[in-house]
Request: fold
Amino acid sequence: MANIQEKIAKLFPEASFEEADTLTITIPDAKWHDLAKTLRDDAELAFDYLVTIVGMDWKDSLGCIYYLDSTKHNTHIAVKVIATGDRETPYIHSISDLYAIGCIYEREVYDFFGIIFIGNPDMRRLFLSIDWKGFPLRKDYDMDPNINPVPLESERQSDFTQMYVEDADGKIVKEEKRVFVENDFVVNIGPQHPATHGVLRFRTAVDGETIKKIDVYMGYIHRGVEKICEMDTYFQTLHFMDRLDYFSAHPYHHCLCMCIEKAANIEVPRRAQVIRVIMDELSRIASHCLFIGTFCMDLGATTMLFYTLRVREQILDIMDKTCGARMTFNYETIGGVIADLDPDFVKDVKALLEVLPKNIKEYNKLFTGNVITRNRMEGVGVLSREDAISWAITGPSGRGSGWACDIRKTAPYAVYDEVEFDEVVRTEGDSMARFKVRMDEMEQSARIIAQLIDKIPEGDIQAKVPKVLRLPEGRWYQTVEGCRGAFGIYIESDGGTSPYRLKIAPPCLPLAAVVDHLTEGSKIADLITIGGSLDYIVPDMDR
Amino acid sequence: MQDFSELTAFIHSLLMQFLPHWAAVTVECVIIAVCLLLAYSLLALFYIWFERKVCAAFQCRLGPNRVGPWGLLQSVADMFKILIKELISLKYTDKFLFALAPYLVILASMLGFAVLPWGNGLQIIDFNIGIFFLIACSSIGVLGILLAGWSSNNKFTLIGALRSGAQMVSYELSVGLSILTMVAFAGSMSIGDIVNAQANGWFIFTGHVPAVIAFVIYLIAGTAETNRGPFDLPEAESELTAGYHTEYSGIHFGFFYLAEYLNLFIVAGVAALMFFGGWMPFHINGWDGFNHVMDYIPSVVWFIGKAIALSFIIIWFKWTFPRLRIDQLLALEWKYLLPINLVNLVLMVCCIVYGWHF
Amino acid sequence: MEVTTKSMPYDAWKDNEYIEKLVKELQDSGTNVIIGSLDHLINWGRSNSIWPLTFATSCCGIEFVSLGAARFDMARFGWEVARASPRQADFIMVAGTIVHRMAPVLRRLYDQLAEPKYVIACGGCAISGGPFRKSYHVAMGIEDIIPVDVFVPGCPPRPEAMIYGIMQLSRKIKVEKFFGGVNRQEKQEEFLKSHPIEGIDDAK
Reply:
């Protein structure tokens, strides 16, 4: 850390440093693009992975906090940039030319805070409609439902997008350009479509069966979780995590709990830690099961769905007995877990571990080896390792491209450093690789559970936590390995009982953003394969 | 073996007693039409129920079991509902063609249905080019699908129709060629002759290797002809919502729905006819007692039983395999099935010429 | 008249008063014997064949998938024919949150459904906004967007609850009238009049 600081201080004397949860560099906007270029390209720094962009409203100023990771050195930094210009038109320079995922992240910040990114080629709103008044995550946003009533008429569509550029005099000018080429045959896939895994919409320009370009529309299930969290106490924010990615509710819960525990300095009892890890891995198996099922259904093999749901039902039963719900558990809480394990828990999990390998074998027999399956999946939607990092494709999809990005290995949390498991990495980068990574990960998850299930220590399930929890002033960032990739929580506190800003960095947003890149030149049927193999969950990306 | 021609001849002579010839023929035609329509709808309903039950069995489920005994009335309830469901008229569509399309599809399958040999003497008309007529009829169906896709003024249906056009035109070739192989073997295009030629052994047994190859190709191509999985691209649910019939509602959709199942029956029926002896009972040379017992089973049961058994295989395909992509689908036909088929035809001719068959 | 469906005993239902009210309404209006029995036949067909639209926005949709799987197997009741095209479906199960951007889409899907069409609001979000009631981008229940026939509470409702909900819908269909005034349809037309969309002549 120290040498990073030294190095940057030498190159950029304007930068100031702050040793917080992560080393934070504050830099004026004018130098930001140069700094980003140095951070990415310098061999010693090599911050090639843009984790997230947190838009911020500090009441007197607007700005962004960029979280960057180096995949080479496994180091993390944060960069704070304050927007120039007034509150009406704040500007920051775009880094979408350096990081491919930057484009969509910046659109998100623009949508929520109205910060305009100079040089971003696609400065449209992301989640909200064109005619939405105001920027909802600003602190002075008026929530009056009369300003933005529920519309019944179809949303206004525009074929144009804006780009803001600096001209020779340093003045910012707006340019309009078409999203598609004129007279393209554009097919609307979604929002109500069986294969978009929820309410996502692809505007697909096709030439016969070949895809030319895809414009991803999100926000059909944007529920404004981040804003609601700012109005709630820390305990109340927890249950929203269940409803983001409802397949991996446990890891998401785990993440928010860990972030708050880190901030409040709460030591979690070991029993709770172990239970949390077991629950995480059980959700991972259930989630991957459903992935395999729905993916096969997208490809036309409906029967597989029913075979995989069988295992999932078994896991849901285990969860049901302990957590009291089938899907939205609200089980992990700050300082531990909310209830002790069911007496049958160990027995049930062992029964599951016994049938799981048989089932995986059955899936492989029925589906993986099939010649049609292989033709449909092999070589379809190839994502190289560099692209995966640039597009921030984490989780099984990233590991299918050869990027070892498992947070359980790179930054172990809870008791992951005590268990033995292999990180499944494949180098092909196609849909088949992404599929097989998930298949193998189920086995690894079972391995983790098998190591822990007999060694759940006795003791408390919850640490002592004050009834009214206040976090000290500061900011924290925590990631966990969700079922679909790295899930991050950013909390900024002003010392109150509710977070000043709670940012959710979902793994699925990059997954949807990369679809256009992957599908170019392939067939419509490949879009379904690629979308299915990426396995995004729409409420997670929309929040 | 009971011969239904005695029954039909009896009815004919009965009518002739008190009616002039033209009136008798008209009455007979009406009776036949009613019987056919009845059989058509009943079979379709049975098939819908059958597929739902079979698919449930594959998926470890129960399938319909609450409406009527074993859920048998489920598809009847569905039909009632579909009959009185609203027919939505769309703006900016070609109304005439839009309405015409489902009728074309159902007409094609009815025509094909009509020439099937139901039993001994139970055939409406025995053309000398019967099997050719059958193939010709079944190709009208694609017209209906193309019209449906185009006239709906919807991009999904258009893509579905284009896919369907490419698929049908390609697989028609394979169906035709594999049937041609068997026609060469039977030496006749008349359906009656083909069935009678199998009295001493079904073609699949007597026809040697080429017959088996032709059967496999026919089954694949036939599945593709009926737009069923894994070749259900024109209505690929996960890609094109409901494909070419996305915009159809009510009974118009019902027609597509029925035609799909009836086409399945027709494809299976033709397979039964060409390879499994039509309504001919299963005989083993020399086992007279066994053959006698087999003869007691009515010929209608034999035919429908064979057709259902074969359609079970096609349903099995659908619920096992993932769907092909359009380019793979066409590659399968033009790169593999067609050349194999041509070679197979030559092989069959050799078999016949040199007498290599049983 | 005891209205029940799918060979469920009448006493097993929880809210018989509501159905009894509907039955009374139906009987009060009086009907011809022939038309009445025809009605009976049609309602038997309709109530036994309700096909859902494949429509899911969030968590509840996954429970709806579970509903189709071997354990709960809605195919037993004939509901498994999920149509992807709204033209061919009978009811729309609004499973999940409906947000501002989705609202026009949902309304359009509803308009695209062929008569007779029904709506089940499934889960807290669809009923009232659920846990996201405070949000700036969530519709406070779908009753402002489309008329609802059955509410199924829960977050998400368990599949058993969904089965119960759809059975209730099936029961409601049984006390409909095909000829003459349809109790449900009147309510629906009233709704469409009070929530018009410009450019589409909904109110007829």
Remarks:
- Strands of chain C lie at 91-95, 118-122, 150-152.
- Residues 97 and 125 of chain C are 5 Å apart (CA to CA).
